[in-house]
Amino acid sequence: MPLLLPIMDRVFKHVFADPHDLGALRALLAAILGWPQADLADITLLDPQLAPEQATGRLGIVDILVSNSANQTIHIELQRRQHLALAERLVFYNARLLSHGLRRSQGFDRIDQAITIAITNFNFVDVTDDYHHTFSWRENKVGINLTPVARIDTLELRKLPVICDQTPLWGWLRFIASRTEEELNMASTISPEINAAVDKVHRFSAEDIAFFTAMREDETQRVWEQYRLDAEREGRASGLATGLAEGLRDGLARGREQGLEQGLEQGLEQGLEQGLEQGRVNGEFEAKVAIAKRLHQQGLTIAQLASAVDLPVDQVSRLIV
Predict the structure, then answer these.
(1) With 60 as the cut, is the pLDDT of residue 104 above it?
(2) CB of 232 closer than 8 Å to CB of 59
(3) What is the pLDDT of residue 290?
(4) Which 8-state DSSP code applies to residue 33?
(5) Could you give the CA distance from residue 132 to residue 120 in angstroms, rounded to a whole number?
(6) pLDDT 10s digits, 240-291
(7) If we measure between CA atoms, which residue out of 4, 241, 93, 88 comes closest to residue 249?
(8) Neighbour-count burial of 310, counting CB atoms closer than 10 A to its CB (0-12 exposed, 13-18 middle, 19+ buried)
(9) 47, 190, 209, 226: least surrounded by Cβ within 10 Å?
(10) Residue 222's closest CA among 42, 83, 88?
(11) Chain mean position to CA 211
(12) Mean pLDDT of the chain
């Protein structure tokens, strides 16, 4: 019989999303959110499919989705393997929950709180060794909270300390992170609620085990397919950026070269035209001066000379003296 562990998707949902027994889920949420379990006494499991508001929108499918009597919606996401865009994915899910809450409300002042919880089997927040982080809408400089309606909690199993930190959350994460039968049995001694959760893992039916075993290969294939798609998207984005940069450099170089050639060609043409025109003008002027001087020797007056060569009188007067 294969060893079933709480971190496996189907086992996790078997323990925490059992519609006939939500005790483990209430205790886990209370430990994560810091709420009294009384505030979670009437939680209701919801359809984990987050339908888009438009036909062209993206469908979101989460692991566990619940609401309580205060219309607060809580989503739990279990991530065993690294996801290239997990932060953006969590924001997307949280925003979708907010939009659904707004649709049920009467106005923006009554929008329902949306809480997204991500439990990861890898390091997610690299800048600190803390295993639990809570993100919300805050002003960057002084940390003023803009609104409590959006909240995202992340829990990193790899950062969980070996020694208990005396919090209920540590016990539940130690249970979820169990990798051997011995660790499961040790977790069962932490609290009666965790002991009941361990018992649910052990009571997994033979049919469930057979189904789970058959599904594991498909799940692995889906994960690797997601990795491949993520890698392709990342490769296309990187290739596009590199191609654009190289294309821009080549285009600028070719543009400068072609511009220089075109500029030289146009400059030569314009210079030749202007030179010919200037030469023609200068030649005509010099011919007029020569004619005016010869006529002056024949005794014509300045006025007659100016009229004969079509030049101003004062200019003819200066040229022949």
Answers:
(1) no
(2) no
(3) 77
(4) H
(5) 11
(6) 777 777 777 777 777 777 766 776 677 666 665 666 566 666 667 777 777 7
(7) 241
(8) exposed
(9) 47
(10) 83
(11) 36
(12) 82
**What does the H/E/C string look like for 81-122?**
CCCCCHHHHHHHHHHHHHHHHHHHCCCHHHCCCEEEEEEECC
148-174 burial: b if 16+ Cβ within 10 Å, else e: ebbbbbbbbbebbeeeeeeebbbbbbb
**CA–CA distances in Å: residue 298 to residues 291, 292, 295, 302, 311:** 11, 10, 5, 12, 18
Q: Is 12 exposed, middle or buried (0-12, 13-18, 19+ CB in 10 A)?
A: buried
- Spatial distance between the Cα atoms of 227 and 84, rounded to a whole number of angstroms: 8
- Crossing angle of helices 9-16 and 23-33, in 10° steps, is 100
- Residue whose token pair is 């997204």: 116
- What does the pLDDT look like over 2-27, one tens digit per residue? 678 999 988 999 999 999 999 999 99
Backbone angles phi, psi at 287, to 5 degrees: -65, -40
What tokens does 182 get? Answer: 């011995």
What's at 76, amino acid-wise?
I
Q: Do the beta carbons of residue 66 and residue 74 sit within 8 Å?
A: yes
Q: Which residue ranges make up each domain of the chain?
A: 9-204, 283-320
The residue length of the chain stands at: 321
